[in-house]
Predict the 3D structure of the following.
Amino acid sequence: MARVKMFLSGLVLAAAMAGPQHAMAEPVQVRTDYKVSLVGFPVASANFITQVDGTSYRITGDLRSSAFSDLFSKVRGNANVSGKVTGDKLEASKFLVDYTSDKKKHRTEITFRNGDVHSTVNEPEPKDRGSDWVPLLEGDLRKVLDPLSGLVFPAGSAVCPRSLPIFDGEARATLHLTPKSIRPFSTRGFKGDAIVCSVRFEPNSGYRKNSSGIRYLRELKGAEVWFAKNDAVGLYAPVYAKVPTKIGKVIVAATKFGG
């Protein structure tokens, strides 16, 4: 289930990267807002600030479960990622997530060097993983992306097809994006076309083979992410995501994108 939460949270938080791109001559700051719903009921909201200064970027934000969702599981968290904008991706140097779920606190901090994982801290430390654990290999931590800015692309680079090597502090997985269609999308600050990509989850290492959550994600069909371009800053970012679950569809939608 932790990996399912990582996948869904990555889609939610990565959507916040609707900030400006390195072509801007002066530092720029942009706020973006998102809502998450399950079978039509609001379950979470996310608010983020993206700052870009030359080729450097920094994103800070928070995620909160709604009053409806709090009846089942109360979640509060914040995220912070910083790094540099390269030719076809955002390359993190430091990634940090703190969150509380049902009064249990969790913290993950990852530092990167040139796309490789340099160090990882998880609090609390993972428990005994069991005999079906697929261990991380040295090569699994090279040229990887963080789960937040890994889904944001500078203009001129391919949106999909694309395979994204993601490391969340424990698991290494690959998200495969495949072109599906072009759809109209509008929200506060944006009206235009969005690139629709289907998403396939491939676990690589750092997980339990017999995990029901991993099995569900591996077999998941029908997941989509829509990417829109902010013409003023030249950046593609998620504006909509649809993820089927066992109890209904999770929808992540931008309530503000640019503007």
